[in-house]
């Protein structure tokens, strides 16, 4: 069985843009454990809409402004030079869940 590859999620507010690495295990959870073989399949012929497109649209609607608030847990790594200027910035998504106060069974990880 194939596995889902890690991905990069771009988050932008119109001025700033940040790329966030998303690991394979979290990608599987985000894609609702859909088999990688199914992601490129068309949902219902003659439509050309794939399971991948539906999952991407759903994730976008969950995270886009105006939706219900959610908590995003990130790991950040900053490498600075001797003048504290950033040489490298890396962000990794650790978890994502609805903002109900505390992560519960609805948390992805």
Automatic annotation (TrEMBL):
Q: Which residues form a coiled coil?
A: none
All residue ranges annotated as the Shieldin complex subunit 2 C-terminal domain in the record = 5-97
Return the protein name.
Protein FAM35A isoform X2
The primary gene name is LOC111145261
Recorded source organism is: Enhydra lutris kenyoni (northern sea otter)
Q: Which PANTHER family match?
A: SHIELDIN COMPLEX SUBUNIT 2
Cellular component per GO, a single term: nucleus
Biological process according to GO: regulation of double-strand break repair via homologous recombination
* InterPro entries in UniProt: FAM35A, SHLD2_C
């Amino acid at each position: 069985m194939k596995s889902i590859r890690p991905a990069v999620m771009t988050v932008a507010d119109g001025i700033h843009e940040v790329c966030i690495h998303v690991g394979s295990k979290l990608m599987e959870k985000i894609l609702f454990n859909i088999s990688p073989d199914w992601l490129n399949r068309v949902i219902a012929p003659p439509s050309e809409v794939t399971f991948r497109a539906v999952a991407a649209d759903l994730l976008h609607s969950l995270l886009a402004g105006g939706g219900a608030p959610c908590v995003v847990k990130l790991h950040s790594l900053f490498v600075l030079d001797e003048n504290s200027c950033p040489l490298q910035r890396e962000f990794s998504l650790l978890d994502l869940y609805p903002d109900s106060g505390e992560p519960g069974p609805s948390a992805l990880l």
